Amino acid sequence: MSDLISQNLNMIFKTPKGETVHALKDLNFTLKKGELLTVLGPSGCGKTTLLNITAGFIRPTSGNITLNDKEIDGPGVERGMVFQQGALFEWLTVAENVNFGLRMKKEDPIKTQKKVNEWLEIVGLKGFGNTPTYQLSGGMQQRVALARCLINDPDLILMDEPLGALDALTREKMQSLVLKIWKETGKTIILITHSVEEALLLGERLYVMAPRPGRIHKEYNLPFASMGLKTDLREIKKDKDFSTKREEILEMIWNMEEEIMGKDI
Amino acid sequence: MLTQIITFLIFVAVIGCILYGRRLIRTEKVDAVFGNPERALGGTHWVIVGSSFLLLVWLYYSWDIAKGFYPKSANELCQVAKVNDSLLGLKYQFPIEQRELKSTSQIKQENRNLKIISKEIQSSTDLSNQQKSILIGFLSKTNQLIPLLTNDDLLESETRQKLNDITGKINLLTENFQKPDYPFETEEELNERLKAVNEEGGWGITKVNAGTGSIENTIEVPLIPATDRGLKFHAAAQELNLISDEFFKIRNHNSQFKDKIKKIKNEIKAYRNDLSDSEEIASTYAKNIVKIARRIEFASIYPPNVLDGMQNAIIKFDIAQMKAQGGLRFIDIFLFPAGTIVASGPSCSEQGSGRWLPKPSDTFNKFVLMSNPSVGYKDIPLLWIDMVDISKIIGFILPDWIADILPGEYPVHTKEGVVKQNFKGAVLKIVTGDFKLLKIPVPYGHIWDSFLRVFLGLVFGILIGVPLGLFMGLNRFAKGFFDPLIELYRPVPPLAWAPLIISVLGIDNTGKVFLLFMVSLSIMIISARAGASGTQLSKIHAAHSLGASKKQILRYVIFPNSLPEILTGIRVAVGMCWGTLVAAEFLAGTTGIGFVENVAKKYFQYEVIWITIFIMGMLGLLFDITLRKIIDKTIPWRGKG
């Protein structure tokens, strides 16, 4: 039982003005080992809150969340995290960034060096070990972030819009990389995204979340991720099933957005 | 010699650079529209022109060009100044540089004074009518003194003869002065003079008093005439002094005047003696009247036209001496801007910009001299190396109580008067540094002392300020607890603390280092705090999920992330410390570059003042460049993250 199980997860924030915001309401889900879950939703639906709770940065107001039957209480190495941008340490080189987790564990530098080189090769950054990170392009920086997270061998990888700041072409390449890594390592992954296409392409499972209060609106089980392992991602986008699903979800999100805007006015 | 070459080079450089600049404008393909910022790029040639102008202004206004091209001009101008100084008294008697005769203006002055007193007496309510009439009587008698002096018929033939003698002497001097071999110096006198000139040295020569090892004041302008032209003026000045003395000894007192003034004085004296204490005011008026009578007695008042001959003689001499100056006058006008050489009494000095703006050549020579460790300033070199035994340093570091806590007693001398060393005694020797090991070079001197103070103050400030600042950036308690303390002392200008700290901690290093520590501490705390609170949350989250502990996050994430702010803070702190230190050294101390400037100020050693200004500027620049290099090396990601 190495699953991620969430039971009646509630998160209520208090703004400085005294208003309460119900960021997550009665969230129940189970994620099996090796599954790739994508979470999609309009802004303010509690995606990032969910991820932060899972990572252990914040504690839920009520309910509990367990990984491998252990309650999540604070950040841990078994849950790696990849951020959208700016989480690399600029004062370190690519290799040093990747090595950071192992260095904190005070592992033998010679052994870790080998591991770092392996991972750099996997993410396609061979030969960039000594480059300072601020000299890398956005896509390469995310590759470093991926490698840095994966080298710690976490059970669960949390990705907070990891490809959000990339241009379309780089994004496509990185999507293939994420799928490749998922397949090769067999890790459980939660990936948060804004892009409907990305959610459909990468998600073995997909949660569409709705705001106010943040909740899971609809759940999908998708075949595209396993297809993507074999065929070109662009081919999948031409798939009829893919486009109907995309239209359906887009419609759903548009309605949610309208609801919010109506409320605001 | 060097000055001449540099002056020529400056002219060549300026002309060359201007020509180059004009050609560049014509050939350049940069967008020729006004407002294109690219047109301001480059321009090293204008930098050369700018610095050349600066140097030229300095050379010119410090009279270094005059010194370089005409090294004897100051000495000659000194002799001319002596003549002018001697002539001054005589000239004032005549409308040469004044509007009217001295006699005329004095008579006007005293008449006015008499009128004022007369008015005061008449309108006074404190005087009785009787007193008033007596005082007015005194006034009119005093007034009647003047015609006795100005009457041509009353002038005694003896006085007339004396005046004629003086006129004759001046005329003779003029005649002699125009002769080429004046003042008829013998071979022997010539040799003696040249020897004295050699001993005295040239213009602006620095002499070192070898015994004390301190820099003496420069001889501003050599006094002894070095040239034939100078000697002429020197001799004329001496003769004129005698003539002038003789003239001012003459008193134009005829027998009538003598009788009358004696009578007035006696009358007033008798009157004042008869007055009682309550009649103080009348007595004061009488005293003032006597004062005026005395002034008339001792003023050089002559009948009109009697002095005409003498006036003409002086004018003739003046014309002759102007002529004799020749080219020197043009040197004076063009190469001694904003002032000239002035003689007063026995000495000559530079008056004007040449006085406070030292000549580049003098400054350079003095700097070379001061750099010599055996000269230095106040027996301390600017920067030198001393061989110090390591034992001294060990003794300084190890606390002496190490020996005290050891078991046993310190050795006591025996009956035979011998001291036997034991273990405890040996340890004491080590902890007090009383042994010999190898010697290492240790720098010392004024510059080093100032540098060390800044360095120590800064190091302490960093060591305490950075951890505290990081802590305050991350912890609410620390921020709240230490904020009042820092905000209380930080806004106070550091120099306002200086008198207090120096009087508590002493004028030596402790006080100054503490002052600088205070300066750097607040800056370091504020910058480290800004760095810590500016850390992106995602970086800290990432470090957490990578398994870093609290300590590791502080050491490997927050600290390097704050480095840009910390290093910028250090750069600011160095500048502040440097400024504060120099001012603190002004206040009190026995070493340091600020101390040198302060002492130089007391002795009017303008060259030394400028040297210290240069040293401070250079060191400040050096610090800044070093830190800029360090910043570029250690935080290349700054502004790119």
Describe this structure in words.
- Chain A has helices at 47-55, 94-104, 109-122, 138-150, 168-185, 196-202, 224-228, 233-238, 240-264, and strands at 4-14, 20-31, 36-40, 62-67, 70-71, 79-82, 156-160, 188-193, 205-210, 215-221.
- Chain A is an alpha/beta fold and 265 residues long.
- Chain A has 2 domains: 27-59 and 158-163 and 170-264, P-loop containing nucleotide triphosphate hydrolases (Rossmann fold); 79-153, no CATH class.
- In chain A, the strands form 2 sheets. In chain A, strands 6-7-8-3-9-10 form a 6-stranded mixed sheet, sandwiched between helices.
- Chain A is globular.
- Chain B starts with a helix and ends in a 7-residue tail after the last helix.
- Chain B has 27 helices and 6 strands.
- In chain B, the strands form 3 sheets. Chain B has a two-stranded antiparallel ribbon.
- With 641 residues, chain B is mainly alpha-helical.
- Chain B folds into 4 domains: 2-61; 73-367, no CATH class; 384-440, no CATH class; 446-634, MetI-like (MetI-like fold, Orthogonal Bundle), CATH 1.10.3720.10.
- Helix content of chain B is 68%, strand content 4%.
- Chains A and B meet through β6, α2 and α4 of A and α24 and α25 of B.
Put the structure in a nutshell.
The complex is a heterodimer of chains A (265) and B (641). Chain A is an alpha/beta fold. Chain A has nine helices and ten strands.
Topology at a glance:
The complex is a heterodimer of chains A (265) and B (641).
Chain A: E1 4-14, E2 20-31, E3 36-40, H1 47-55, E4 62-67, E5 70-71, E6 79-82, H2 94-104, H3 109-122, H4 138-150, E7 156-160, H5 168-185, E8 188-193, H6 196-202, E9 205-210, E10 215-221, H7 224-228, H8 233-238, H9 240-264
Parallel strand pairs in A: 3-8, 3-9, 6-7, 7-8
Antiparallel strand pairs in A: 1-2, 1-4, 4-5, 9-10
Helix pairs in contact in A: 2-3, 2-4, 3-4
Chain B: H1 2-27, H2 44-61, H3 64-69, H4 73-91, H5 102-123, H6 129-143, H7 145-150, H8 157-177, H9 187-200, E1 208-209, E2 214-215, H10 228-249, H11 255-274, H12 280-298, H13 308-325, H14 327-335, E3 339-344, E4 347-352, H15 353-356, H16 360-371, E5 384-389, H17 390-397, H18 401-404, H19 423-431, E6 439-444, H20 446-474, H21 476-489, H22 494-505, H23 509-533, H24 537-545, H25 550-587, H26 593-602, H27 606-634
Antiparallel strand pairs in B: 1-2, 3-4, 5-6
Helix pairs in contact in B: 1-2, 4-10, 4-13, 5-6, 5-12, 6-12, 8-10, 8-13, 11-12, 16-27, 20-21, 20-23, 20-25, 20-26, 22-23, 22-25, 23-25, 24-25, 25-26, 25-27, 26-27
